[in-house]
Every structure is written in structure tokens, then in C-alpha cells.
Amino acid sequence: MPTQKCPLCGKIAKYDNPPGNSEKYKCFLCPVSGSFVISLMAEDHFAKFPIIDRTYYSDKAKAAKKGKVLIIQFCDDESEAPLIQRYDEKADWFR
Ligand SMILES: [Zn+2]
User: Fold this and answer.
1) Which domain holds residue 11?
2) Mean pLDDT score of the chain
């Protein structure tokens, strides 16, 4: 698995494409934030976020119930809060 800095907490994390090889998403395994899925557009957006806002999402990722995973997507509808978050079945995203 390739590694890079976690977009949520900045620690070095592993990531992979989801099953089906969608290149629009990365599935992260972070030693701090745990497992989460982020779209490439949302990842770009996070780079501009202050650390306090990213920590909020890191905590959300850690709070996922067993078998669930946090999905973070970017919705470009010019709203104030363009990031969408939801919990989904982990098995659909992690092999
Ligand atoms: Zn992290």
C-alpha cells in the first residue's frame, strides 16, 4: 500500500483505492484517525483547512461504529459547507 500524510491529522498513513478501483476516492488507514474514505476533491479542500477543523473530521472518523466507515465527499454547489460526511458499510470500501 502507498503512504502519504493523512489529510485529517498529518501523520503518515496508508491508503488504497476502493474496490472497483474508483480513482475518485482514497481509502485511508491512519494510526491516529483510523479508517476513512475521502474523495480527491475533498482532500484538496482539506489542505486549506486549519488543523482544528481537520481534527473535527479525524474525531468523526474514529467515532465510526463497528463495520462502518466515514466517507467525506466534496459537493461543489457553492454552499457555505461544501463537505458532505456520512457513514457507510466498511466492507463496501475496504477489501
Ligand atoms: Zn489521520
Assistant:
1) 3-92
2) 91
From the number of C-beta atoms within 10 Å of its C-beta (0-12, 13-18, 19+), residue 55 rates as: middle
**What pLDDT was estimated at residue 34?**
97
State how beta strands 34-39 and 83-89 pair: unpaired
For residue 45, report the distance from its CA to the centre of ligand 1, in Å. Answer: 16
Q: How far apart, in whole angstroms, are the C-alpha atoms of residue 91 and residue 84?
A: 20
Distance 5 CA to ligand 1 centre (A): 8
**Cβ < 5 A residues, ion ligand 1:** 6, 8-9, 30, 32-33
Determine the distance separating the centroid of ligand 1 and the alpha carbon of 80, expressed in angstroms: 24
pLDDT tens-place string over residues 51-90: 888 999 999 999 999 999 999 998 877 666 678 999 999 9
Provide the domain count of the chain.
1
More confident call, 60 vs 46:
60
